[in-house]
Amino acid sequence: MNWYVQVWKRWSDFQGRSRRKEYWMWSLANVVIALAATIMFAIAGGFGSYVAVLQHEEPHFSAFALLVLAVIGLYSLATIVPQLAVTVRRFHDVGRSGWWVLALIVLSLIPFIGFLASIAMLVFEVLDSQPGGNQWGPNPKEDETQGIVA
Question: What is the SS3 assignment for 37?
């Protein structure tokens, strides 16, 4: 949970480095939140409305389903900048500029090349930290092993 909170505390920090654990714990927490929200939406009857649309009927969302949908939308908007920031810091940790993130996002919009860009993004996100310091700061993994938690 501390890793998730740490990303929120550094929500607009595009400087420095973030180790794999911070990035992937943030991602895991967001997947769990998305699953919980989807389950709540399904319980509220939201998916029944989608079935009604597919059957060419008038959809009837309950007030609770609309509230859940609004909360999901707001949470998604709220996590855009923290997600970008932790991804840029993750790229810094493996020795790449944050501009790589922008380039890969733009390339992901192109058919087929987007698939390759997504694989490249995943590869950079799973690489181990660059040993020692680099132009974006000291290695956060090494700071932690020395008793200094960044």
Answer: helix
